[in-house]
Amino acid sequence: MILPIVAYGDPVLRKVGKDIDKDYPNLSELISNMKETMYNASGVGLAAPQIGKDIRLFLIDASPFAEDDGLPDEEKKVLESFNKVFINAKIIEEEGEEWVFNEGCLSIPDVREDVWRKPTITVEYFDENFDKHTETYSGLAARVFQHEYDHIEGVLFTDKLSSLKKRLIKKKLDNISKGKINSGYRMRFPNLKR
């Protein structure tokens, strides 16, 4: 089932997510619905807060990035198979000199900005079968993970912008929260007058 994606301005996007256990109600159905929702919106990641749930769950399918001709073959290969579910994820180490990349977000349609992030991270998480993993990601895989991880920490990519950039996009963000946007996918707007 395709779920509505929560728009910028909804308080759930600012909550730090709660850990869940394997008995979380209808977890496999929730993951399936989140995947369907993400693909319907042409996203490469989707976090539970973006569908209104303040839990530590997100999923990633970074394979569309593998089609970028400018990437090294090794990174393309990693991105092609970077399709995972992350439950109760934690970043345990960040390394390297920050690099910039233009990011967007399904909860903030039509806004794209350059964001600086560390290039290499080591993470711990549980998969959908509640098997525990510790893995290290670099490049775009690390970036997509960090973007989705921010969601379960109550952080949006726009929080990482300079105050000047924030002022420049303020009107766009206000319009998104009021539903004055056509995203091309189902959304839920916090300030929509009904």
Automatic annotation (TrEMBL):
Cofactors that this protein relies on: Fe(2+)
Entry EC no(s): 3.5.1.88
Keyword list, A-Z: Hydrolase, Iron, Metal-binding, Protein biosynthesis
Alphabetical list of Pfam families matching this protein: Pep_deformylase (PF01327)
Record field: catalytic activity: N-terminal N-formyl-L-methionyl-[peptide] + H2O = N-terminal L-methionyl-[peptide] + formate
Family, similarity comment: Belongs to the polypeptide deformylase family.
Protein name as annotated: Peptide deformylase
Species: Tenacibaculum jejuense
